[in-house]
Amino acid sequence: MRAAFIVAPRKFEIREVETPKIKDHEMLVKIEACGVCSSDMSGYLDSGSEAMKQRMPFPRQAGHEPSGTVAEVGKNVTGYKVGDRITGFFSGACYAEYAVCDPSDKLGRGHGTIIEKIPDGIPFEHALGEPLMSLVSIARTATPEMGDYVFQVGCGFMGLGVIAGVAHSKLREYIVADLDDNRLKMARELGATVTLNPGKDDVVAEVMKITGGRGVDVGIEVVGHPPGIKMVGDVIKNNRAKLILVGWHQVPDTYELVSWIKSPIIYSPQGIGMSTDHQSELTRAMWALQKGIYPINKLVTHRYKLEDIGQAFEDNLNRVPGYIKGVVMPWL
Predict the structure, then answer these.
(1) Rounded Cα–Cα distance for residues 58 and 40 (Å)
(2) Residue 98 lies in a domain
């Protein structure tokens, strides 16, 4: 089979490797699609800490947002059969034609395998279970109350998905900041009521003006870099605001946290991290996808062949015009 390996900073190789042999408790999954996630970029750039580099030496594999078809089933596996369409989290090496799934693993990475069957009519490239279950976890954690002011910074794939799951008509304002005006336009379509561009607007001043100088009740950070953390800290209210940290902060950096003396309640609700019921989040995510709560058809904008994975990562890094979410499809 073919599989993608990161062999040096910003360099992929497609290699022919042996198709995995499954054990009696495992399944072989034909990978139909795997999302390109910004959390994979540090491994691609080799920008993580020295400890991370030692844990993940070159050549590295990546890909943790798979959907696919069950190709082979071990004799001890129950509940699944050849031909089933599944999604979720079961491997971190899914930029490949096949991957092994162990439905019996309930402990790996602290949560084990998390899989769900894909509803009929949902394309593989839309059934990205891992980020969708994270979005469900975020929505269930944020839970702003009637009349709240909500502020969010970041309108990438995850940020737009957060708006789709959190915004509702009982909020006083849902204020969103991003540097991309096209993404801000989509944010309004998904429920944001005020959009601000930090390249053009004094975001903190505008938020304070909107809230009468009080600050927001809920701040949501979906950037993954220090400026996003500072911005939400600057606009939250004093005393027990809720701060939702969605951004994936994995590169050593310097953070200014002085605004946190306001004593916010801090959550980091990435689905496979904070959730206490991973399977429930994934099941709810597939229901939400069927109901159209997450407009994934608008958010998945680019599809790539396996041999074009380097371009997929570069497009993610460079925020090419129109790009929101890329998906690698090994059999395209």
Answers:
(1) 14
(2) yes
